[in-house]
Amino acid sequence: MKSQRIMSTSSFQWPSIMTIWRITAGLSIVCSIWVITEILLDKRKKSMCYHRIIFAISFFNLISNVWFWIGDLAHMPVFDTLRWGWADPLAALKSGSITTCQMSGFSIYMGTLAIPWYSAALIIYYYLAVRRGWKEDRLRRNFERYVHMTIVPISLIAAIIPFFFDLYDIFYTYCFVVQADPNGNYLVSDILEMLTLLAVILSTSIMALYIMFLISF
After folding, report:
1. Which residues make Cβ contacts (< 8 Å) with residue 21, sequence separation at least 6?
2. Whole-model pTM?
């Protein structure tokens, strides 16, 4: 992460929004821990394909929301007037670093990809188990292992790539894949995030619609 770009970024300091952000992230963290614990402590649930997919969703959700809860605390203690038009009054209170911001961006970006794809996998599971009548052994052998072998590596590799291009930086209330021009214009970053989310939403929606189409016959 280039120090010049770090110093040209500004933290998003709207206390009321950050409070709401942390409340919702905190609730998600609690629910994720609850689901993960329920599955890990129950041998029957651990042995079922359905619950293992739910476990994967909850796991990535937990990782993402921990950093969503941390929010701007992971930001570097910087301030300027390029982006928001005012200095960050709480900059001196922040104890984040380049590393914490990169960890935040990595975790959130990985979760942004993995969670919707696992949700799509859950839709396929319902189709195979309910509509096609696949049993647990067949689901595990011919479906579940390919789900994990595909989603986890792709999400992990996609989240690692930005490290090589120095793209993880402050992005509003958290850190994400960010690219600003020399004038501090973040339009490129906004477009990049929108395209990433759009690609994930479209791929998941197409999968869901396709399964719904198959179920109708």
Report:
1. 68, 69, 71, 173
2. 0.76
